[in-house]
Write a structure and sequence with these properties.
single chain; about 250 residues; alpha/beta; 8-stranded mixed β-sheet; two-stranded antiparallel sheet; 10 strands; about 20% strand
């Protein structure tokens, strides 16, 4: 299948999505040309789902960066918290930058089914994100108890509570799974902002890329729908919104 054919499937749901490798290539061009930094001066932290498909489909060119530091648990929520962010911040080159790529993921099969992918070696499709899909099913079946977060299933319970707080918005949406993913993105974005504001960085820049990571079947690959691209200059104390570079 040609690249334009793959993108046509994804663009039915995410019109501005590009392949994840193109997203990484754009980033490297930007840090080299605009920030005058080499990739080895950039420390990557990702807050994406721990699903194995993300390791399989994440571009190998990110290995040019330092890291990655893994902040995310189920569906990308930054469960390592303030301690994780602080640890990551202390690993960055003094004359370099931090790059935080974060957001939930969602599956779209090559036949256009949202919330599923066909994984290598399997005879049937499986959920993606499985945790979000499970939480959404519990939401529709009134099985989520407000405020219930257990030690045994802390991460899943947290995802459930995020959806529960936006129950009416989700269940009344045209595509509830799409809307649930948007809700989770907003919760992750809010938490990332809180963590960044409460962390000290001894480097030049903080690069924040918030996105929906879109997985597809094993022979299609992954795509990125960028929702935020901010450059914080720590020396000048300024923030640039450069989302137009990905639109």
């Amino acid at each position: 299948m040609k690249k334009r054919e793959k993108l046509a499937i994804i663009h039915k749901y995410y019109p501005n999505a590009i392949s994840t490798i193109d997203s990484v290539n754009k980033l490297i061009d930007f840090i080299e040309n605009d920030l005058d930094l080499e990739p080895t001066k950039l420390m990557l932290a990702d807050s994406i789902c721990s699903d194995d498909v993300n390791s399989i489909q994440y571009p190998t060119r990110t290995q040019e960066f330092l890291g990655p530091f893994k902040m995310g648990g189920l569906d990308g929520f930054p469960f390592t918290g303030l301690t994780g962010m602080g640890a990551f911040a202390s690993h960055v080159p003094d004359d370099g930058a931090v790059f935080i790529y974060y957001g939930p993921h969602i599956g779209i099969t090559k036949t256009g089914i949202i919330g599923e992918i066909h994984r290598l070696g399997q005879s049937k499709n499986s959920g993606c994100c499985g945790a979000a899909k499970g939480a959404l099913n519990k939401l529709f079946n009134d099985q989520i108890v407000e405020g219930n977060i257990t030690e045994m299933d802390y991460q899943m319970n947290t995802i459930e509570q995020i959806l529960f707080r936006q129950k009416n918005r989700i269940i009344n949406a045209k595509i509830p799974f799409f809307e649930a993913t948007e809700v989770i993105y907003e919760a992750i974005d809010e938490r990332i902002n809180e963590l960044v504001e409460n962390t000290v960085y001894n480097c030049k820049y903080i690069i924040l890329m918030g996105a929906i990571l879109i997985n597809s079947d094993s022979d299609i690959g992954s795509f990125t729908m960028t929702k935020r691209f901010d450059i914080i200059d720590l020396q000048k104390n300024t923030t640039r919104n450069l989302l137009h570079l990905y639109e």
